[in-house]
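Q: Give me the 3D complex with flavin mononucleotide.
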Amino acid sequence: MYQPVQLSEDIFYVGVNDRRTELFENMWPLPRGVAYNSYVIKDEKIALLDTVEIGQVEKFLKKLQSVIGDRPIDYLIVNHMEPDHAGSVNLIRQLYPDVKIVGNKKTLPMIEGFFEITDNLMEVKEGDELDLGKHKLQFYLAPMVHWPETMVTYEETQKILFSADAFGSFGTLDGSIFDDEMDFSYFHDEMRRYYSNIVGKYGSPVQKALKKLSGLDIKMIASTHGPIIRSHIEEVIGMYDDWSSFKTGEGVVIAFASMYGNTEEMAEVTARAIAEAGIKEIRMYDVSKTHSSYIISDIFKYKGLVLASPTYSNELHPNMEALANKLKHMGVKDHCLGILGSYTWAGTSVKRLTELGEALKWEIIENSVEEKHTLKKQKYEECRRLGKALAEKLIAERN
Ligand SMILES: Cc1cc2nc3c(=O)[nH]c(=O)nc-3n(C[C@H](O)[C@H](O)[C@H](O)COP(=O)(O)O)c2cc1C
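A: Here is the predicted complex, encoded as C-alpha cells.
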C-alpha cells in the first residue's frame, strides 16, 4: 500500500524507484538506482503524464489506482517515447481502452511503430491547450532534448512544468520526493552525469528549449527522473544553461590508461605540477577502472583536461580509445587539453590524442609529452612544464 504524494490538491506523483537495474540503457551504471517519475492530474478529466519502465509496472499501477480508484484515465500525455517512460503505454491502453493518447506529430508514428496503436490518438501542436476542468495543460515541443519527439507539458493553474527527461537525474527518491525535503546537493553529481551522458550531445537544442521556456512562470519542475524541483528552480535552469553551452569551471580532469605504470607516472608528475601552480580541483581517473560516464561528467564540469595513453598496437589503449570516441561523438566543446603518451618502439598515442583535440577544436597545450620506455629526467621536466602551462592558462581565465 502506497501513500499518495501530492504536488498540489489534485496533482499526484505516481512514480517508482528501480534499485535492481545495474545499467541504465544497458550502458550507464546505477549505483544509486534510478526513479521513473509519472504524474496524474485528477480533475473533471483525468490525465496521466508519462508512464514507467514496464518492469516496474505493478508498483506503478498500485500507486495510480490508489489515486484515481475506479475512475478511467481520459488522457495519457506522452512527453517522451523512450521505453523507460513509454514502456507501460500499451498496458495502460489495455486497462483503459478509451484513453486518448496525446502526443505531437513525431510521437504518434512512434506509438504506432512501437505499440501498433492507431486509434484514439490526439495530436497536439506547439502551444496547444488541453482543458481538464480546473486544470489546463499547454504543450511545448523540445525536439532533440534528447529524442526528436520530446515535448514538455505546462500546467497553468499550479505553474508546473512536466519536463520529460530535462532536469532529470540518476538516483532513487528515498522517501524525499521534493528538492526541499532533502539535501539537494546530493543529486548534483548524478544530475550532471545524467545530463552529460544522455543529453550532453544536444547542447544547442537544450539552449533553444531553455529560451522557449524562459517566458513561462515556473513554480515546479516535474521531470521523469529524480527529485521534483520547487526550491532550486533558478539553480537547475542555470546548471542546464551552463552544461548545454559547455561552460565549465576551474579544474582539471586527468584521464589516463596504463598497463604497467609508465603513463600513470607521467600523469602523476603532471598532476603535481598542476596542483603546485594553484589548481585545487584535480580529478584523476584510470580509464580502465572508472566508467566513462563519471569521467565525462567531470569533463562537463572542468575546463582543463589531460589525456594520457600508451601506444597499443599502433593505436590508443582500447579504453582510452573508447573514451576518446565518446567525447568526439558527443562533440564536447571548449576545453584546454594537455596530452601525454608512452611507447616502446613507435609511438602513435600522442598523435591520435592530438587529432581528437583538433577535431573538437579544443585548445591544445603546446609541447605534448611522449616518452619512450620509462619516464626519465628530460620528459619528467616536460610533464611538469605541461602541467604548469595548463594550470596557468586556467588561472588566467579567472573572473
Ligand atoms: C599489447 C601491447 C601493444 C603494444 N603496442 C605498442 C605499439 O604499437 N607501439 C609501441 O611503441 N609500443 C607498444 N606497446 C608498448 C607500450 O606502449 C609501452 O610499454 C608503454 O610504455 C606502456 O605504458 P604503460 O606502462 O603506461 O602501460 C604495446 C604494449 C602492449 C602490452
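A quick observation: The radius of gyration is 24 Å.
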